[in-house]
Amino acid sequence: MSENPKDTAVTTPAKSDGTKATAAGGATLTKDAADGDVLLKVTGLQKHFPIKKGLLQRQVGAVHAVDGIDFEVRRGETLGVVGESGCGKSTMGRLITRLLEPTGGRIEFEGRDITHLGVGGMRPLRRDVQMIFQDPYSSLNPRHTIGTIVGAPFRLQGVEPEGGIKKEVQRLLSVVGLNPEHYNRYPHEFSGGQRQRIGIARALALNPKLVVADEPVSALDVSIQAQVVNLLDDLQQELGLTYVIIAHDLSVVRHVSDRIAVMYLGKIVELADRDQLYKSPMHPYTKALLSAVPIPDPSRKSARSERILLKGDVPSPISPPSGCRFHTRCWKATEICRTTEPPLAELRPGQRVACHHPENFADQQPQDTVLLSAAKEAAELVSDEVLAQSAETSAAVAAELEGPAEPASGESVSKSAGSAESSSESGESVSKTARSASEATEPASKSTEPVSKSVSKPTEPVSKSVSKSTEPASESAEPASESAESASAEPASVDVSKTDRREAAGETGRQESAEESDGQESTDK
Ligand SMILES: Nc1ncnc2c1ncn2[C@@H]1O[C@H](COP(=O)(O)OP(=O)(O)OP(=O)(O)O)[C@@H](O)[C@H]1O
């Protein structure tokens, strides 16, 4: 069945009680939601699915589907959740709608702890928290009419809308752009997009405060996806809804979200405002995800080489890697990434990231320079341009934030500023800033500890990119001589190739802790 062309136009008729179906605030609510106006707060949320074996069904392990996540959702906003398949997005959605019982952590809805509410306790809450499911083909009972499906929440909650259930269901059908006359039809008589609209009508029936949509459009054709996404958008404006939208399609998430949480193997690795995240991602995983989004612009040939190919699959959530879970696929991973889990820290206002060596920001563990063997392999899949750019921005931000005399530190860094953004905006401005960065780091490299640090990733590809530059000779000549001059006294500017850099890093490691380094590589393998 083809889509009804009228479907795209969303009109919200008056409610049966005569009031206009517009929640206070509507569109402005999304923009102006105060920080303190938190609808949902999640702290340390965990879900471990037990693995049982044998006749006695003894537990032999657990799938760490969601493993300690913290976030909040403000009233009227849309939080997008992205990540690779199996990272725990759907499990998280089912936990916050309390379709699953959490193993640990806390869920607060409107300030009330709902973590372990029983069926009775949850009943009133079901009106306020609704879920839209991924597959519109299997989420509707084929033996029930649309009227029965959309009217079910009223019957289950014992709610009698003014004018009766039928009238209210027909109103809801027209809200989502379906013909109210189709009340008596069955799901198989509708197209995928229309079925998803039925699912949305059912979710909206009780006028919820929070709607969790799990991959709401991934099962639909691209043309229909846009219609459903726009419908969700319009409904939010008109009804003042708050959304958590789970998706793996970054372009969909970008379109609908105010803030975005990036999940990896049961953890949130980055949480930021949408524009900030797309403009200046800080977690290497976010950067890799964003680099995989196709750019529909043939004039941007360089976009291909900026693509980051991640090595291998996501590790098993049954025994996730130690430390930072991304360290087995990260091209920046050092020993500390293997041993110590980075906290989700607010490095920039509104941007939280869990990484020891963030992108577009000062290195949080600059003393840790020896790449893990897995990181060396992963770096082979990352283009020189990406490595150079990453190091340049880190060095530039470090210099801007720390000043010439102090080494980078997490604390001072967190007092950050938007200055980091400017450094990532354009290659030209970046290299200029990077040059001033390498100048600014001079005094730092004179102190004893940061000597090895100054050989590290942030600074050295600065000169590498400079030497590779095909830009005007005057541009490249100046820093090249800078690096040549300072090579002996200032390792920060040592000009090394990709392979040399690793050797240099390995050398440093051997000097610093040969045994540790050996142990680490064998463990890593
Ligand atoms: N009921 C369950 N019992 C055991 N393991 C489960 C269960 N549900 C999910 N898992 C496991 O938990 C992990 C996270 O699954 P989840 O469906 O939340 O991932 P996802 O990010 O939503 O993936 P996708 O995008 O493919 O839907 C997976 O490894 C999955 O196999």
UniProtKB/TrEMBL annotation:
Residues 433-470 have a biased composition (Polar residues). CDD domains: ABC_NikE_OppD_transporters (cd03257). The keyword Protein biosynthesis does not apply. Residues 514-525 have a biased composition (Acidic residues). Pfam families: ABC_tran, oligo_HPY. Coiled coil: none annotated. InterPro entries: AAA+_ATPase, ABC_transp_ATP-bind, ABC_transporter-like_ATP-bd, ABC_transporter-like_CS, Oligopep_ABC_C, P-loop_NTPase. SMART domains: AAA. PROSITE patterns: ABC_TRANSPORTER_1, ABC_TRANSPORTER_2. Residues 1-22, 401-525 are annotated as: Disordered. GO terms for molecular function: ATP binding; ATP hydrolysis activity. Residues 40-290 form the ABC transporter domain. This is Peptide ABC transporter ATP-binding protein. It comes from Streptomyces echinoruber.
